[in-house]
TrEMBL record:
Coiled coil: none annotated. The gene is gap. It comes from Corynebacterium matruchotii ATCC 14266. The keyword Oxidoreductase applies. PROSITE patterns: GAPDH. This is Glyceraldehyde-3-phosphate dehydrogenase. Pfam families: Gp_dh_C, Gp_dh_N. One of its GO terms (molecular function) is oxidoreductase activity, acting on the aldehyde or oxo group of donors, NAD or NADP as acceptor. SMART domains: Gp_dh_N (SM00846). CDD domains: GAPDH_I_C, GAPDH_I_N. Residues 135-296 form the Glyceraldehyde 3-phosphate dehydrogenase NAD(P) binding domain. Belongs to the glyceraldehyde-3-phosphate dehydrogenase family. SUPFAM superfamilies: Glyceraldehyde-3-phosphate dehydrogenase-like, C-terminal domain, NAD(P)-binding Rossmann-fold domains. Keywords: Oxidoreductase. NCBIfam families: PRK08289.1.
Amino acid sequence: MAPDWNTKLTSAQEMLPLLYNLHHNNNIITSIFGRILMGVTDIDIVKAHRYSRLATDTELTPAQTLPIVQALATLNPTSASIDIGTLAVRYAEHHSDNHGEPEDLVAFLRTELAEVLPADDAGDHENPVSATPPRDIVLYGFGRIGRLLARILISREAAFGSVKLRAVVVRKNGDNDLQKRASLLRRDSVHGAFNGTITVDEEHNVIWANGTKIQIIYSNDPASVDYTNYGITDAIVVDNTGRWRDEAGLQQHLKATGCSRVVLTAPGKGDLKNVVYGINHTDITPDDAIVTAASCTTNAITPVLKVINDHYGIQGGHVETVHSFTNDQNLIDNFHRGSRRGRAAGLNMVLTETGAAKAVAKALPELAGKLTGNAIRVPTPDVSMAVLNLTLDKEVTREEVNDLMDRVALYSDLRQQIAYIHSPEVVSTDFVGTTHAGIIDGLATIANGNHLVLYVWYDNEFGYSNQVIRIVEELAQARPLVLPRRINQAEL
């Protein structure tokens, strides 16, 4: 194993400067079946190739993908997210000329990546990094979700430069407010340390994070903020306070000078459009000044329910959520406006209501009235599970459902929303930091005739926050082009 390992490391080390140059010069992010190769080490690259065994008959090695990265460096592509793992598999298995000889790699890549390659052989085109200025993003609130959104936005700016966190609006809580908020961004008991450096400019109320200037604005009134005073225009404001959830309340943001659109990180009330990215994000129109990102549970289960309904049909079902406690609950027994939530969160399982099952219908109208739901809050700080107990239109087997979900997770247009795992040892902490909306636990799947039970893990903080950022990028028209194109899950 040692010589094989050293060979893999050698190829990975040769790949590192090429990956850096592709990102720095061409705004290209590469991945191996969704495992991003940005800011990685040689060992990270080897591990990403190890993951490919789930998608191919034989595990890819860095030696197989290195020629693709080398060829990309000569083709001068424009901004995109390129899956070199998928390209390697397609090149090896499906592309040969009429004589059975392997197709020229460069010719193959020119066909597969035509959308982002210059038309002429000279390879001249406008520098994609500086072509479009990034869209201004403001976070209104800086709690659990707000700080994770900040981390993701900072990393996305470094990756693609298409969205930029400009400011955070909060209420001031004392003279040391700025230092405390910077410290909470720097260290997190669940998600670990911030990946980079954070400094504070108290004179100007600014937090610097990896070179990103984050203006801290103190205000109790969304409508009174003038963002243009800070050079912020046409901003997308992400309200993560949960204080206002109806149109009238959220319209206060639109009265602020410099704000043009609003995203709510909670289910909206009334006629507000609830968006689950990957399912109904294409329903967003230029006239939608306010959209909501639904809930973490709705984001976790809706993509899975979409796949099952498209392939097997859902007659009805029940969703039981086993949910980590949240800041809304009491640390010890005390008064709470909600039923049962006043009891100590760290000592009890707390049965409560959830609107997630009904909220699915806002993204999937075909499931309106078909689902019920409840939730049990449990003494864990993050990562939850939804149990989908479904009655289908047709009989299924455990094997065929798991195979479908595995293929959806690897190849489909819902790859960012759905992951699949088949391990007898995983527990909730193994899913802290996942970027997926939900992860199917294949070993727990139960199928009996037309009765199906699926267990879906989800990081109710970080996974959900990634779904929110996808909506923000959609509004900013800043979603990266992903190549090769993914397959519509309904066609698998």
